[in-house]
Design a protein that fits this description.
The complex is a heterodimer of chains A (359) and B (281). With 359 residues, chain A is mainly alpha-helical. Chain A is built from 14 helices and two strands. In chain A, strand 1 and strand 2 form a beta hairpin. In chain A, helix 4 packs antiparallel against helix 13. With 281 residues, chain B is α/β, with parallel strands linked by helices. Chain B has one domain: Rossmann fold, CATH 3.40.50. In chain B, the strands form two sheets. A six-stranded mixed sheet of chain B has the order 6-7-8-3-9-10, with helices on both faces. In chain B, strands 2-1-4-5 form a four-stranded antiparallel sheet, with helices on one face. Chain B is globular and about 45 Å long. Chain B starts with 20 loop residues before the first strand and ends with a helix. The chains are: A mainly alpha (359), B alpha/beta (281). Chains A and B meet through helix 9 and helix 10 of A and helix 2 and helix 3 of B. Chain B: Belongs to the ABC transporter superfamily. Chain B: Keywords: Amino-acid transport, ATP-binding, Nucleotide-binding, Transport. Chain B: Pfam families: ABC_tran (PF00005). Chain B: GO terms for molecular function: ATP binding; ATP hydrolysis activity; branched-chain amino acid transmembrane transporter activity.
């Protein structure tokens, strides 16, 4: 409770403790959760929120519809980003049966790469973004070939340990290269925020929603109509059959990592432009788990819906928390509570594989 | 190319004179997991444009032979440790399965192995994965001409009947435009009528498209009707080979693989059917 009160005071004052150089794993989780908070709620500039909260604390139980609406929109925007990251997580899992614990670090690396290009070389955002995408694609391929290809055929736990190792390694590498403090992105849009249905929404977040929807549609098209997408589905279904059709399983694995790294980095850049780039970005990698397990580990559609649910859930939970409960940590915890309940009712998630049995 | 296939109208292709072999397997030895010796010195030739049957009991190594040719052995931790396999004059053992498909050998695996969570059309398009030309659309129509039933099935391939799945598996093989199709037990789990239909189609494909077919079968009678030449395997070796007619008339083959050869057997069969009839009454 002491911790909760400190946290809520931090939230009210709107300041977060800057990352300190010495960090234990616990420390990291605490700080990332504190920042994860900022990652999400910064989506829409919630004016007068602190005053509302004060009144909430004072026992005013009337529903604050305006705040709720803002948080729901916020949830959709952040949820769409979760969905995108969850999709790229599921892509790797489906194609190569690897649970990638380093998914969050893909966001981090992509965001830092883009930030570095923009600040060091002063190139326009679009170019920096495209170069980042190309870089992340190459990065994904190389990572797969160098680190994960030798692991094919090894026990699943070994592969998981390797991805956890990668996560820690890249986390530390990024801190070593770029420091531990959050660094702001150069502004992308002339106008910082636009009015949508009477809500002040940051332009970057509108861009984020647009990009998320574009990526989702792109995934849909890719897996339904493109030759390589079909080949990836075939590989996910049965590797031997895929090989008998002339599909190179190695190429499919490398491609799935490339696409996954690239798409995750898009989310990283988008979040980075709003909140600045810091190791808090890799927190997305943890938020992805409730999303994909909710949706079913091997369903791309499930990942999108799971992401949206998690995004909405944490914002709505935050609303009730700040208005009525004042427990101070519902924002992070609520998705995991719901995750446990859903796994008790539907162990394969909402859209998990139902194998077709002919009768 | 005709759409409807009359089961009885398609004659067996004439037994051709010895042509140069498209595929030749020379004295191969196959080992699984480094210790289990499955093929011990197997040799066979498949002449271009013909159907060759590979027969034998369960566990003789027929499927292993096909996997050795298509390279899929690698996916099951098996390896060709001796001898060589050459296709169109080039040695192909040790090459990855996806590259072998690109060279023109396509295996229709045992149990059809269609991708059940995709539609028929998606399965067919995957068959053409290795092709770079723009005639895929026409070939899909061609497959629909052979198998009009597939065109009506728009749902997931997993919901097709066994016969339809087999047709889809053959159609998917055609989409790759291979020179040689390796077919592993196309009659598996099908009703006698469907078996006839499938074999009629196999003959028709061979005749119309000039595709060479190496056919592994349990149903020796049907296989020898369709094929021009046959090999009989036993515990990893070829024990007998000859033209389909020779094999079909061979006394040993009749007794072991075709069944119902001699007098006693026929009387036993009558006894059985008599009993069955009585039971129904």
């Amino acid at each position: 409770m002491v911790f909760a009160s400190i946290r809520s005071s931090v939230r009210r004052s709107g300041q977060f403790p800057a990352g300190d150089p010495d960090h234990t794993p616990y420390d990291r989780i605490l700080r990332t959760t504190a920042r994860g908070d900022s990652v999400a709620t910064a989506g829409i500039r919630i004016q007068k929120q602190s005053q509302e909260q004060e009144r909430g604390l004072g026992g005013n139980l009337a529903m604050n519809w305006n705040l709720l609406f803002q948080l729901v929109v916020n949830g959709i925007i952040v949820g769409a980003l979760y969905g995108v990251v969850a999709m790229s997580f599921v892509l790797i899992y489906k194609a190569s049966q690897v649970v990638n614990f380093a998914q969050g670090e893909f966001l981090l690396i992509g965001a830092w790469a883009c930030w570095w290009l923009l600040t060091t070389y002063q190139i326009p955002f679009v170019w920096g973004f495209l170069i980042t995408l190309a870089f992340m694609m190459t990065f994904g391929v190389i990572l797969q070939i160098v680190v994960l290809r030798p692991m094919i055929g090894e026990p699943i736990i070994s592969v998981i340990m390797v991805t956890i190792g990668l996560s820690i390694f890249f986390q530390a590498l990024m801190k070593w290269m770029f420091g531990v403090f959050a660094k702001p992105f150069p502004p992308i849009f002339e106008t910082q925020s636009v009015s949508v249905f009477g809500l002040q929404v940051q332009s970057v977040y509108l861009m984020s929603l647009g990009i998320s929807l574009f990526i989702m549609a792109g995934f849909g098209w890719f897996f339904k109509y493109s030759k390589m997408g079909l080949a990836m589905r075939a590989t996910a279904f049965d590797q031997q059959v895929a090989q008998s059709l002339g599909i190179s399983v190695r190429t499919v694995f490398a491609l799935s990592w490339a696409i996954s790294a690239m798409v995750s980095s898009v989310a990283g850049v988008v979040v980075g432009t709003v909140n600045g780039v810091s190791s808090a970005l890799s927190f997305f990698g943890i938020k992805v788990f409730p999303a994909v397990i909710l949706g079913g580990l091997d369903s791309i559609l499930g990942a999108v819906i799971g992401g949206l649910i998690v995004g909405l859930l944490e914002n709505v939970a935050h609303f009730f928390d700040s208005q009525f409960l004042n427990w101070g940590n519902m924002y992070e915890i609520a998705p995991f509570y719901v995750l446990i309940v859903i796994l008790m009712i539907k162990p394969y998630g909402l859209f998990g594989t139902k194998t077709i049995e002919r009768v | 190319m005709t759409a409807a296939i009359d089961v009885n109208a398609v004659p067996a292709p004439p037994v051709a004179a010895r042509k140069p072999a498209l595929l030749s397997v020379n004295n191969i030895e196959v080992v699984y997991n480094d210790v289990i010796l499955v093929l011990r010195g197997l040799s066979l030739q498949v002449p271009e444009g013909e159907i060759v049957a590979l027969l034998g009991a369960n566990g003789a190594g027929k499927s292993t032979t096909l996997k050795a040719i298509s390279g899929l052995l690698k996916t099951e931790d098996g390896a060709v440790t001796r001898g060589d396999i050459s296709f169109a004059g080039e040695k192909i053992n040790g090459i990855d399965p996806d590259k072998i498909v690109r060279r023109g050998i396509f295996q229709v695996m045992e149990g059809r192995r269609i991708i059940s969570d995709m539609t028929c059309l998606e399965n067919l398009r995957l068959g053409a994965f290795t092709r770079r030309d723009n005639n895929v659309r026409q070939d899909i129509e061609m497959v629909y001409d052979y198998f009009p039933r597939l065109k009506e099935r728009t749902g997931l391939a997993g919901y097709l009947s066994g016969g339809e799945q087999q047709m889809l598996a053959i159609g998917r093989a055609l989409m790759a435009r291979p020179k040689l199709i390796l077919m592993d037990e196309p009659s598996m789990g099908l009703s006698p009528l469907l078996v006839k239909e499938v074999f009629a189609i196999i003959r028709q494909i061979n005749r119309d498209l000039g595709v060479t077919i190496l056919l592994v079968e349990q149903n020796a009678r049907m296989a020898l009707q369709a094929a021009s030449y046959g090999y009989i395997m036993e515990s990893g070796k070829v024990v007998l080979d000859g033209t389909a007619e020779e094999l079909a008339n061979n006394e040993d083959v009749k007794e072991f693989y075709l069944g119902g050869g001699g007098e006693e057997r026929r009387s036993f069969k009558n006894l059985k059917s008599y009993k069955r009839r009585k039971r129904w009454l």
